[in-house]
Amino acid sequence: MSLSTRTRARDSGRTSGPGHRAARTRGHRHSRSPQWTAWAFLTPVIAYLLIFYAYPLYRNVELSLRDYTVRSFVQGDAPFAGFGNYAKVFADATFAPALWHTIVFTLVSLAFQFTIGLALAVFFARNFRLSATLRALFLVPWLLPLIVSASTWSWMLNSDSGVVNAVLGWIGIGPVNWLTSPEWSLWSVIIANIWIGIPFNLVLLYSGLQAIPPAVYEAAALDGASGPQRFWRVTFPLLRPVSAITILLGLVYTLKVFDIIWIMTKGGPSGASTTFATWSYRLGFGNLVPSFGPGAAVGNLLIVMALAFGLLYIRIQRRQALT
Amino acid sequence: MGSASRGRRATGMGLAILAAAGGLAACSSSEGQGSANASQAAGGGPYTIWDPYPQFDKSSEWVKLLEDCGAQAGVRVERTGYDTSDLTNKALLAAQQGNSPDVLIVDNPVVSTLAEAGVLTTTEENKLDVSAVAPNLLAAGQSGGKTYGVPIGANTLALYYNKDVLDEAGVKPGDIKDWASLTAALEKVKTAGKKGITFSAIGTEEGSFQFLPWFWGSGANLTKLDSPEGVAAVALWTDWLKKGYAPNSVINNTQTTSWQEFASGEYAFAENGTWQLANAKKTGFPYGIIPIPGKDGGTAPAPTGGEFVSIPVQADTGRYATSQKLVTCLTATETSLTTTTTLSYIAPTEAVQAKQVAANAELRVWVDAVKAAKGRTSDDLGTKYPKISEPMWGAVQAALSGSKSPQEAMTAAQAAAASATR
């Protein structure tokens, strides 16, 4: 990367928006009121960030650092407990399995969502009859409310009356207890999550493919590149920026998946499909007596994980912006 | 400059992720106290009632009943129905912000928790009369020698059976007296090519609710989950699953999905509650109800379901008198028949129970079951109950799914419960 591109990128970063620049130049000529106008335009955003992001986050952190009982929650005099709730969460027998499930759930979901999404994107990239209609149909999982898709999946995977076991029965495979055996429940929710995540990958990667100039393919074809070669030498490398963003966004989304798991298995049986997201909810709201402190602590751990990947995303985005 | 802009963007992105990932913050709140009721206190204003019956809308009998009671007390009533699992946190949050409703109707095992939090007034303060209420029902609303509300009605669990399936298998429901005869009946049903029994063993409070009749019916006590009696109850269910008398889906069944299985007409028995009575008539097959048998005979104590009507603490104690009128209107002997019929509950007082049976002989078995029933928070467990219940449903799930033996599961549950209640 040359020095000049770097400088240009920085310049554009500094004067981030025409409004800013305009406000400054006019500010030299006239009174200070345009400065105030600028602030007035900024205020809604700042207020929005403070009210809906900063304050809830602050409360969540505070919640996780205090020893809340139902009584102290109501009276508002919960004693400061430092990292007591975190220590409790780390020592909990649920911690290691929940962490492992979160990792497996996220990575396996992503791998399949991306692979299938990419395959479909490449497939739909050659425009054929009805391709637009078919592509639209593939978006259905995305459009359905999660409660509907998760309920449908749990109905299909029902041990006794589910359609999946019925089909497996025809080909001579015994009933699989998809949702009710500890060996399968995590895989069941992963399968459902993959299905739900494919359209997201398909849409992003499809639009990424549109941006690759056809001339590159023509050149490759003239050089005698075969189909697989064209994919691995042209499509895949040129799609890398879009792929990276797709995967990172998917990562952040998948880490916090809660509804699918909760509707299908409630994290069970006996914790076999519990991830950080469902564990946090269970601690905070899943019992007759809420444990707000530990629940918030688990939620914050999840936030830290998402944040780490979010920062990675920003790094990659910056690198792409500069190249 | 570069690093500053990166920092700024990082913060922005970070905040966006945080908002997406952090859900718990929703239960936090400001510290404002007691301002919400000031206006109400000044002019009387409407009286707020919260209940866990969101299925009833404005045109329902229930809401009409509330409005009538308001009219009798000379006030306007503002009613909100919440999902029952939502109501505890809503009530705690409202109390924290000083805008509790005037009348709060909550699920009975929650009463001791709210009492512990200082959210509810005692009957000494609110002058509610609980003398006529059956002691086994009232116990769920008592803690530390004080009473925190009046049961609006009660429901409990029993075994529904499908007459056709039992006839086909040659089983007489009257012969089922204990666990052995029930298991023998299930075996006959299976041999006849039908399905045995369905229940709900889901990993929530609902699972504990359904498991308790067997646990208590074995003679076990919640303070010692891993007693031989407690393990025997888990082993009974586990055995049924292993032998195919009960479907594997019970592990994920709610009481509603379990009922749907029974309604398919394939099952001989279903463990379910009073509230399914109306649905039972719609199934299209002849059904009957027997009490859940104890291990060695007799009727097993089933847990009481149903809500308590309570009066939350208010900054303006002058409101209690009117709230008391509203609650009395819903629970007094004269009106209780209407209330319980509206909610399809069994009345909490013997006098009204007799009236109910006189009106509908079918309710006899339920009245008996309610008389034998026991509050989950009874035996002085109070707020300890939820901390025992969670490991217990976990153990049932672990044993049924085969990840632990009944003994291992209950031993682990007892260890967890002991450390949580210490």
Automatic annotation (TrEMBL), chain A:
<dbReference type="Pfam" id="PF00528">
    <property type="entry name" value="BPD_transp_1"/>
</dbReference>
<keyword id="KW-0762">Sugar transport</keyword>
<keyword id="KW-0472">Membrane</keyword>
<keyword id="KW-0812">Transmembrane</keyword>
<feature type="transmembrane region" description="Helical">
    <location>
        <begin position="98"/>
        <end position="124"/>
    </location>
</feature>
<feature type="transmembrane region" description="Helical">
    <location>
        <begin position="238"/>
        <end position="264"/>
    </location>
</feature>
<feature type="transmembrane region" description="Helical">
    <location>
        <begin position="292"/>
        <end position="314"/>
    </location>
</feature>
<dbReference type="InterPro" id="IPR000515">
    <property type="entry name" value="MetI-like"/>
</dbReference>
<protein>
    <submittedName>
        <fullName>Multiple sugar transport system permease protein</fullName>
    </submittedName>
</protein>
<feature type="region of interest" description="Disordered">
    <location>
        <begin position="1"/>
        <end position="29"/>
    </location>
</feature>
<keyword id="KW-0813">Transport</keyword>
<dbReference type="GO" id="GO:0005886">
    <property type="term" value="C:plasma membrane"/>
</dbReference>
<feature type="domain" description="ABC transmembrane type-1">
    <location>
        <begin position="99"/>
        <end position="313"/>
    </location>
</feature>
<feature type="transmembrane region" description="Helical">
    <location>
        <begin position="36"/>
        <end position="55"/>
    </location>
</feature>
<keyword id="KW-1133">Transmembrane helix</keyword>
<feature type="transmembrane region" description="Helical">
    <location>
        <begin position="184"/>
        <end position="206"/>
    </location>
</feature>
<feature type="transmembrane region" description="Helical">
    <location>
        <begin position="136"/>
        <end position="156"/>
    </location>
</feature>
<comment type="similarity">
    <text>Belongs to the binding-protein-dependent transport system permease family.</text>
</comment>
<dbReference type="GO" id="GO:0055085">
    <property type="term" value="P:transmembrane transport"/>
</dbReference>
<keyword id="KW-1003">Cell membrane</keyword>
<dbReference type="InterPro" id="IPR035906">
    <property type="entry name" value="MetI-like_sf"/>
</dbReference>
